[in-house]
Amino acid sequence: MVYSRSALALVLLLTACPDDAPPSSDSGSSTNATTPTNPTADGTEGPCPDGGSLCGSDCVFLGSDNNNCGACGVVCSGVGEECIGAMCVDTDPCDGGPGTPCGSECVDINNDDNNCGDCGRNCDDNEICTNGDCIPQGGTGETGPNPTTSDGSSSEGSSSGGGSSGGSSSTTM
After folding, report:
1. Phi, psi for residue 14 in degrees, rounded to 5
2. Is the residue at 123 inside a domain?
3. 83 and 106 inside one domain
4. Is the omega angle on the peptide bond into residue 136 within 30 degrees of 0, that is, cis?
5. How many whole angstroms separate alpha carbon 138 and alpha carbon 155?
6. I need a labelling partner for 65 at 20 to 30 A (CA). Which of 18, 34, 53, 111 fits?
7. Total number of domains constituting the chain
8. Structure pTM?
9. By three-state DSSP, how is residue 22 classified?
C-alpha cells in the first residue's frame, strides 16, 4: 500500500508541473543574465521551449538574437551586423555608406563593368559601364537623337538649303 501511495504522489507532482510552462516572472528568484539555461546541466529541457535560452526574464535564441548573440547581453551593434550562427556577422560591406552590396563587395553599379546596373551583370569586352548601362567604348551613354544624319555624315556644322549658319554675310554691289 505504501508503494501505491508513493506512485500516486509522484503522478500528481508530475501532472502539476508541466515541462513546457513558461518561467514565471513573479517567482522571486533572480536569474543570472549571462548564463543561458537551456538545456539544463542534467540534459533535460530548461524553462524555454524549442531550444531557447533564458536571458534575464526573456527566452531568446542565442544563434539569431541581435541583442543576445552567442551569449546573453552580447549585442551586434555595428552598421549592417546581424547575429548569424551565434556570431555577429557584417552583412553590409558598404557599412551603410554609398554603394551597393554585391556578395561580400561594395560596388558602384553605375560604373562597375562587372556589376553594371545590377549585381553580376557584366559588360562585354568592348563595352564600359556608364550610368548603369553597358555602352560601346568611346560612346557617351546618353540617350536622345543621334548626332549623325541619315547618310552617316555628322550633322554638326552642316546647313541645309544653302543658307547661312549664323555668321554675318556681306554682299558686294
Report:
1. -70, -35
2. yes
3. no
4. no
5. 18
6. 18
7. 2
8. 0.38
9. coil
Beta bridge partners, 154, equal 148
Q: Confirm whether 144 is domain-assigned.
A: no
Question: Three-state DSSP class for 6?
Answer: helix
Mention every residue, 6+ apart, whose C-beta is less than 8 A from residue 161: none
- Does residue 111 sit within a domain? yes
pLDDT 10s digits, 18-63: 444 444 434 333 334 444 444 556 666 678 888 899 999 999 999 9
Domain contains 37: yes
Residue 82's contacts (CB-CB under 8 Å, 6 or more residues apart) are 66, 76, 88, 89, 91
| 3-class DSSP state of 36 | coil
Q: Reduced to 3 states, what is the DSSP secondary structure of residue 144?
A: coil
Looking at the structure, do residues 84 and 129 belong to the same domain, yes or no?
no
Reported residue count of the chain is: 173
Q: Of the candidates 47, 46, 55, 109, which has an alpha carbon nearest to the alpha carbon of residue 83?
A: 55
- Which of 33, 32, 30 has the alpha carbon at shortest distance from 75? 33
57 & 39 share domain: yes
- Tens-place pLDDT, residues 109-168: 999 999 999 999 999 999 999 999 999 987 555 544 444 444 444 444 444 444 444 444
Question: Do 35 and 77 share a structural domain?
Answer: yes
Regarding whether 79 and 44 lie in a shared domain, the answer is yes
Give the structural domain span for 128. Answer: 100-136
